[in-house]
Amino acid sequence: MGYMVDAEGIHTTRKKVEAINNAPKPQNLHQLKSFLGILNYYGKFIPNLAMLAHPLKHLLEKNVPWKWTDECDASFRSLKDELSSAHVLVHYSEKLPLKLACDASPYDVGAVISHVIKWRRKTHRFCI
Q1: CA 100, CA 113: separation in Å to the nearest integer?
Q2: How many other C-beta atoms are found inside a 10 Å radius of the C-beta of residue 89?
Q3: How far apart are the C-alpha atoms of 101 and 99, rounded to whole Å?
Q4: Model pLDDT, residue 71
Q5: What pLDDT digit, counting tens, does each position of 70-119 carry?
Q6: CB neighbours of 71 closer than 8 A, spacing ≥ 6?
């Protein structure tokens, strides 16, 4: 199904992440839509997805000519890097405290409900 589920939570699969990391730079709108589609599938693992993807999504707007800029290239690389980082979505537990984080940008709004967990690596993990 594209996810790995274990006792710790839900993870991206190595195979899909490698496929995204090996994806060539889009050369046209069709290729860009394919790339953004797979990113949306894993979007919950990518913090600030709307901000990072904005230069790419701008190319999808009506009456915007195809022009791959340095900003598009930086966005493309940043999205790949974020997806490669070790984000995990943990299972919900009534016993753990919750934290609500809301955010907005000129391009999108979002919210995340997360458990506050101290892991061995002292990182926070998100729940769904």
Answers
A1: 5
A2: 19
A3: 6
A4: 96
A5: 999 999 999 988 877 756 556 677 888 888 878 787 877 877 777 776 65
A6: 55
Contact 54, 75 (CB under 8 A): yes
With tokens 């493309």, the residue in question is 76
Name residue, tokens 């753990």: 96
Residue written as token pair 């919210």: 111
* C-alpha–C-alpha distance, residues 36 and 45, integer Å: 14
The per-residue b/e assignment along 24-61, b for 16 or more CB within 10 angstroms, e otherwise, is eebeeeeebeebbeebeebebbbeebbebbbbbeebee
Give residue 106's identity as a one-letter amino acid code.
P
What is the three-class DSSP state of 95? coil
Distance CA 93, CA 97 (A): 9
In angstroms, the CA 126 to CA 87 distance is 8
pLDDT of residue 109: 80
